[in-house]
Amino acid sequence: MLGNFFSNVGDKDTTALLQSIRIGRVTFVDVDNATVFVNWVDRTGGRTKIPLNMPFCEEGWGVMTMPRKNTIVVCAMRPYEFPIVIAYLPPNFMTPDSRWSDYKKISGLKAVKDTDPSLANIGKGEIILRNMIEKAKCKVCGNVYTLEEWASSFRYNNDQDKIPIEICPNPACNKPALEFTGEEITAVNKIQMGILIYMQKDGKLRIKLNDGLVASDGFTKGSIVDINFDENSNMTIEGVQDLTTKSKNTTIESTETSTISSSAGNKITLKPNGNIIIEVASGKKIELGAEGLAEPGVLGNQLNQWLVAHSHPTGVGPSGPPTQPIPNTVFSKKVTLE
C-alpha cells in the first residue's frame, strides 16, 4: 500500500489515502512553478498543474531537473484525486527488456568500459549525469539538426506495425532515427547531444562533450576533460585543449612553488621566496609588447664593462675611460637576464 510507503509521523491519516497510482504523458511543462500538465495513458483526459518530484530536493539544495514534453510519469493520487509526480519512466516502459543498450547508443555511451573508458557502462557506486542539448546528429550523414527539425517529419516503420519514426531532415539521407525488426532495435542513427559528467569509483571526475558537437557550436569535437584528485589532495586536469578564464578579478594563490610549463620547454616558476623565474627553451625568445619584434634586450653588466673600457680617437690620441662611472641606479633591482 502506498500509504505505508509515504507515511510520516503525524500525517498517516493523509498519506494512507495514497492508495492508487496512474501513468500519464507530459503535455506541458511549467518551469516557473515546477508543475506539468499530463494526459492519462489508461483513460481519456488528464490533469493540469501537477507538482513535479525532483530526483532529490531539500530546502535550498538537492538534485533538480526538469522533464520535457512527452515524458512518461507515474503519479500518486492524493486526497480528492490530487496527483503528484513520484517517478519517471522511459518511453518504452511497457516492453519486457530494459533497453539500456539502446539508451547507450542514443546518448553516445559505449557498451564496454574496458575498450572505451571515456563513455562506458555505469559501474557499481558510480554516477553519470547527462543533460539534453536541443540538437541531435545523424550518424549516417553526419549532419546536425535541432530536435524540432527532427520531429518535423515522420514515417511508419512498416505497413504492419505502423509505428511513427523520426526521419533525418537531410533529403539526401532520409534515414530513420531508429531501425528495428519487431521489438528489437537494430540500429540507432540519431545521436542525442548532451554534456556528460561521469563520477567514477576510482575518484576521477570525467567531463565529456558529445561527439556530435561541431566547432561552430563553440565546443571542441569529442572533447574529454579529466579531473583527478590523489591521496595527497593534488588535483590534475587533463584533456583541456584551450583554457579561457573570464572574470572581473582573478586570483591564483599558492603557498609553495607554482610552475607553468609548455611542451616547447618554456617554464615560468613562482618561488615561495617571491622570486619569479622565466626559463626559455633553446632557440626560443621572450617578446615584450608584440610578436615579431626585432629590438633585443641589453645585458646590463656587459654593457657597463664595454662602456668603462671603450675609448674614442682624438687629435692628441685615444681618449681615456669615463671619469664618472655609470651609477648603480640605472640597473634594475628586480630584473636579471641570462
Overall radius of gyration = 33 Å
Could you say which overall geometry the principal axes of the C-alpha atoms support?
elongated
Strand content: 25-35%
Broad structural category:
mainly beta
Uncertain residue ranges: 1-10, 111-116, 212-221
Helices and strands, in order, run as: HHEEEEEEEHEEEHEEEEEEEEEEEEHEE
Summarize this, please?
With 338 residues, the protein is mainly beta.
How would you describe this structure to a colleague?
A five-stranded antiparallel β-sheet has the order 3-2-1-6-7, with no helix packed on it. A five-stranded antiparallel β-sheet has the order 8-16-17-18-19, with no helix packed on it. Among the domains are: 2-89, Beta Barrel (OB fold (Dihydrolipoamide Acetyltransferase, E2P)), CATH 2.40.50; 100-192, no CATH class; 196-238, no CATH class. It is elongated. 11% of the residues are buried. The longest helix is centred in the C-terminal third of the chain and has 10 residues, at 300-309. Helix content is 9%, strand content 32%. Strand 1 (21-30) and strand 2 form a beta hairpin. With 338 residues, it is mainly beta. The chain has helices at residues 2-6, 12-15, 100-107, 147-150, 300-309; strands at 21-30, 35-40, 46-51, 56-58, 61-63, 72-78, 82-89, 127-130, 135-138, 144-146, 154-156, 164-166, 178-181, 184-188, 190-192, 195-199, 204-209, 224-229, 235-238, 258-261, 267-270, 276-279, 313-314, 317-318. It is built from five helices and 24 strands.
